[in-house]
């Protein structure tokens, strides 16, 4: 561990981590607001304020299980130093910026985990990996969109059956109101799961520098700063990805938007309470595809959905490679 790390460098690394958190909110704002914007329940500028508020207050609802997983369950905390954290963050940030510029809804979570893995392995080899935590994350890559997909389909079936005697106008009006609740829940789940990942990064950095004593924990100021950075990123919006998530995969009605958001929120709540760092992007995409497929399979633009899946597959390896290259570059040029 880099015990002699100076305060300016430590503060600088924390600032880089909060920059990642900000970009996470910017990149994943679409996950929280795409459905409520595409169904025209809220204008985009109001939707981002709505989502940002629930992103920030999420720490009042959830524990810090995901932060614990990121801090101690991806790579061995004993090999963490400033160089590893910096390389991991660069790997995640570069991949986030590339996919944001291209309008691809990739996973900020898996970019960060890939970055941590790549930097840790570059320093200490594969023995640095905590395979129990990594395997849990890899399993979640498959399960989170599948669970979101199935829950959304079931909700569409239940809601359709319950609304069979109502007029289309009445159903539309009711679910325009209900979408406020479902979007709030999804934004809450997003803030609860994603902000904790940066909390884990900052906490393990502080722990590696002896700033937390002998026990790993997340200081409250770290919790507040990470929630605030993510909320600010969400306020900036991610309009390119909003278009992909809300319009290009399938067309949504308020009822379908409600089912997608509720199915996605339920998945995020379960994962966050279990301490599993899932991808909010995977979850909401699976739910949106689920509501589209519930109508008819041809309602889903499968070519768009498949291109998103390709981005998911390469996210962790790509960010890991960038992180490893960054670690080696820093080792060569910074003595």
TrEMBL record:
Cellular component terms (Gene Ontology): membrane
Localization of this protein: Membrane
Membrane topology qualifier: Multi-pass membrane protein
Family annotation (Pfam families): PHO4
Protein name: Inorganic phosphate transporter
Transmembrane segments: 47-67, 79-98, 110-131, 138-162, 216-242, 263-289, 309-330
Keywords: Membrane, Transmembrane, Transmembrane helix, Transport
BP GO terms, sorted: phosphate ion transmembrane transport
InterPro entries linked: Phos_transporter
Keyword Phosphoprotein recorded: no
GO molecular function list: phosphate transmembrane transporter activity
Native source species: Bradyrhizobium cosmicum
Lineage top rank: taxon: Bacteria
